[in-house]
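Worked example 2:
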Amino acid sequence: MRIDVDEDCEVGVDMAPLIDCVFLLLIFFLVTTMMKKWETQIPLTVPEMTSSLSPKKSAEDLAIIALGADESVYQVVSRNTYSGETIYQPIGDLPDYLANLRETRGVELPLEIAADRTVPVSRVIEVFDLCQLRGFMQTRVRLGGKPNEDPLTK
């Protein structure tokens, strides 16, 4: 069985849509270059580039309670955003600390519990529940937040 293929049935690329696309791209680039010229004529004073992070984390924004690997409780006194340096202070009695925090700064203060990865989950939940019972509703937990070295050496 033999099929005759006519020369009229040849497969080829139709050039009309390709030429249309090229003209549309040409018009697009012409218009955008004209817009770029107009943008340079608009008088603008651009502010200097600054960082959105402050080098020191304000202690008034957030209270951080850190749990060490030995399940001891620390207060984060200051934290440098750029270097990552954090200064800890041990908390003797956590319920007294939370009561003092509630009286001085109110219950709307966000609390963060930064726990070392080796701290048992039951201890983290215990501290979280204590914060909730004291009225701090904006409490979140961050695991792996406390460095492994002794905080008193910093």
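The longest strand covers residues 73-79. The two ends are 91 Å apart (CA to CA).
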